[in-house]
Input
Amino acid sequence: MTSTVTDTPAIRAAARRLETAATTGTPVAPIRDLIDRDDVASAYAVQRLGIQRRETAGARVIGRKIGLTSPAVQRQLGVDRPDFGFLLDDMRTPQTPVERRPRLLQPKVEAELAFVLAEDLDRDRLDAAGVRGAVDYAVAALEIVDSRIADWDIGFADTVADNASSGWFALGSGGVPLDRFEPRDITMHMIIDGELASEGTGTACLGDPLEALAWLARTAREFGDPLRSGEIVLSGALGPMATLTPGAAVHAELFLGSSLLSAVDFTWEVSA
Output
């Protein structure tokens, strides 16, 4: 992560508050008393301080996540744009042992499409068609979203500062090149403990997950930290998120018509 972090007492105080929640496991009050709920620049500055803290502790950035891609959620929070956060290697399951992952406080789960990049996205053309050729493959993903803010009482600045309400993530095995399908045409089913918990389509993600990827590519470049080859990008939810409880087994499938395109599984193990 290369961007310079704005440093003010309020930004440092907000970052400390969120760090306290992460280390103690106790959610904290929103940070809206420290930075304005619409102060995007300060919210991302808080986020970057948190990421720098985790990098100093040994975690490594391996990608990004896009949030607020659903128009309904945008309306709920009174915003007209997505947001983004960072994926770190200690967030990936099952590769990272549960005791080394960030602590979960109030987790929920949502099914997404993940893109793995084969090329840097630091170019002139960063629309949906332009970013498509930079994708190595796509795969089903589960994002375990979480909030350090008590009761998920979040506004736009709160969720941005909290690394876009991130927790853990899991990718399906294998990958599908984009010459085999259009991301906007997929459908999703997410099943928890044998019961259908969520369903949706590719169009639920900004109309097309590639549009979400293009938005992130442009935004990351504007922040001076463009997307790079090998990074994982979670496109945003394809359907409603669902509450996650310890021991729950989650299975998500992505279909193209009646054909299974990709699937992913996750079980929330808890450390002893």
Q: What stands out?
A: The chain is about 25% helix and 30% strand. Residues 66 and 236 are 5 Å apart (CA to CA).
